[in-house]
User: Which sequence fits this backbone?
């Protein structure tokens, strides 16, 4: 069970909400989660609106909750959560979630290649554009 709360508390009349669709004025939400009826204090979720009707959720949780049968993902984790003092972990969970920045494909092209990209993308119709 998730309980979403708007990150924008200054909007009049928001109150408690249970879903991002309950309050379209907010662009970001924070959530806690209950698993089998028990609040999971070591987890926090942030949900950001990306344009009209699109949302992305970022989860912060401890590495000891990772289920990775093959061990491939777990091997990429640099610092096990149980090696972090509880107070520091709580600070990390409470840190604000930075907003997302929407980029175009062209935004990802190195500056010195943008003109080549534009020429090929828009004149050769290589990407179905134009």
Assistant:
């Amino acid at each position: 069970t998730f309980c979403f709360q708007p990150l924008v508390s200054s909007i009049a009349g928001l109150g408690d909400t249970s879903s991002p669709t309950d309050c379209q004025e907010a662009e970001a939400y924070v959530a806690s989660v209950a698993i089998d009826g028990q609040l999971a204090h070591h987890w926090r979720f942030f949900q950001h609106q990306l344009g009209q009707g699109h949302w992305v959720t970022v989860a912060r949780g401890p590495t000891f909750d990772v289920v990775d049968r093959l061990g491939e993902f777990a091997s990429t984790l640099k610092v096990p959560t149980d090696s972090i003092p509880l107070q520091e972990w709580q600070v990390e969970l409470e840190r604000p979630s930075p907003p997302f920045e929407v980029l175009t494909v062209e935004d990802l092209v190195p500056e010195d290649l943008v003109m080549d990209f534009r020429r090929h993308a828009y004149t050769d119709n290589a990407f179905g554009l134009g």
Remarks:
- The two ends are 45 Å apart (CA to CA).
- DSSP finds two helices and five strands in the chain.
